[in-house]
Write a structure and sequence with these properties.
globular, single chain, about 60% helix, about 270 residues, mainly alpha, 14 helices
């Protein structure tokens, strides 16, 4: 039962969120929405604990497709960062604002960059590409994410100033934005031979994710006494994290997506 502790904890957290939002708003959508996401995360964590290698992909597709197809394409909710700015400026507490608050702003204090590893619909596609192990040193262009972050805020602000910030415009922006993200993500993956290049250098959402991730409750722990210094864990990390260091200040500490590649690869189980 102990190995399923994380699975139970994840489901419990989202179940509490679902019930609190339902009781405070009376909106059944919140109960079903966060209940479904919590169930998928719980099942995925349980499958991971059981040793199934594709557990993360299961969660990525069950959650990622739900957000992209159902909330985005069917319900016309802009779930990208521009949608967050739009709902925030409009004073609307809807799926977009709650999604960002829970998954990307405050949630990382609990589950770090788990969003990137288990729910992001952009990474869902990028992780299917063949460049799973980064080739060469990390590029020093991470500043681009902050530029994209600022541009997204400026774009939505301009739409409000021009009186063009309407639900229909934001939905078209959601469609266009996803096309651009997939195109840029795939192009960078091929150019840098790195599936996660978009996440490291371009994605503006990481600006929200990084601050509280450093203090995340859920993280990969390292036991130096067991380590034989083979370096295999570093080789398979898609985010170039210095996983063979237990400090919260380890290199690229806020980049870990909890993919468990390192824990599976470690021959002496020094990572957990």
């Amino acid at each position: 039962m102990k190995k399923y502790r994380t699975a139970i904890l994840l489901f419990a957290v989202f179940a509490v969120i679902a019930f609190v939002l339902y009781l405070s708003t009376g909106n059944l959508f919140f109960l079903l929405n966060f209940g479904y996401i919590g169930l998928c995360l719980g099942i995925g964590a349980a499958l991971t604990a059981s040793g199934w290698r594709h557990a993360r992909l299961f969660v990525q597709f069950t959650v990622g497709l739900y957000i992209l197809v159902f909330l985005g394409l069917i319900c016309h909710e802009n779930m990208q960062i521009e949608g967050f700015w739009y709902y925030l400026f409009s004073g609307v507490v809807g799926a977009g604002t709650l999604h960002y608050a829970i998954a990307k702003i405050f949630g990382p204090l609990f589950f770090g960059r788990g969003w990137c590893g288990y729910a992001c619909w952009t990474a869902m596609v990028l992780d299917l590409l063949p460049y799973k192990r980064p080739q060469g040193p990390r590029k020093r262009i991470g500043f681009i994410r902050y530029i994209v972050f600022g541009l997204s805020l400026a774009l939505v602000g301009l739409l409000f100033l021009l009186g063009k910030a309407t639900p229909s415009v934001m939905f078209r922006l959601f469609i266009f934005g996803n096309i651009v993200y997939y195109a840029v993500g795939i192009a960078l993956a091929v150019a840098f031979r790195d599936n996660r290049a978009f996440c490291k250098y371009i994605c503006p959402v990481t600006v929200f994710l990084k601050p509280l991730t450093r203090y995340s409750l859920l993280r990969i722990r390292f036991d130096e006494d067991k380590c034989i210094h083979c370096g295999k864990c570093r080789e398979v990390c898609p985010m170039d994290v210095e996983v063979n260091n237990d400090s919260r200040k380890r290199r690229n500490a806020t980049e870990c997506i909890l993919c468990h590649n390192c824990t599976r690869e470690c021959p002496v189980k020094a990572l957990k």
